[in-house]
Amino acid sequence: MMAWIYLVIAGIFEVVWASFLKLSEGFSHLGWSVATIIGMVLSFLFLAKATHQLPLSLAYPIWTGIGALGTVIVGVMVFGDRLNPLTWVFVGVLLIGIIGIKLTTN
């Protein structure tokens, strides 16, 4: 159970560092740049902890999926990104894929 918690935390930090990367404006703002790097390190550390118990073939796609979905949500809600309806369909497909991977594993 802890491995799944670590994986979710790793995915959240994936969203955090990607958001901070946007705010760093190409690493031109020191504070946001440092926050980006800290988020990256924490994301990788929690992913590494999760892969002690979960297979990489399961952990990695879920980790990247959480990061992708979370970043889409942050992009739309925080940064005002606009996505067309077809893009939302594919975001939904991504979510279904992540849930499917989780549900079909032992």
Automatic annotation (TrEMBL):
Name the Gene3D superfamilies for this protein: 1.10.3730.20
Instruction: Specify the domain of life of the species encoding this protein.
Output: Bacteria
List the transmembrane segments.
28-48, 60-80, 86-105
Q: Is Transmembrane among the key words of this record?
A: yes
Q: GO MF terms on file?
A: transmembrane transporter activity
Q: What's in the GO CC field?
A: plasma membrane
Locations listed in the record = Cell membrane
Which protein are we looking at?
Uncharacterized protein
Organism (species): Secundilactobacillus similis DSM 23365 = JCM 2765
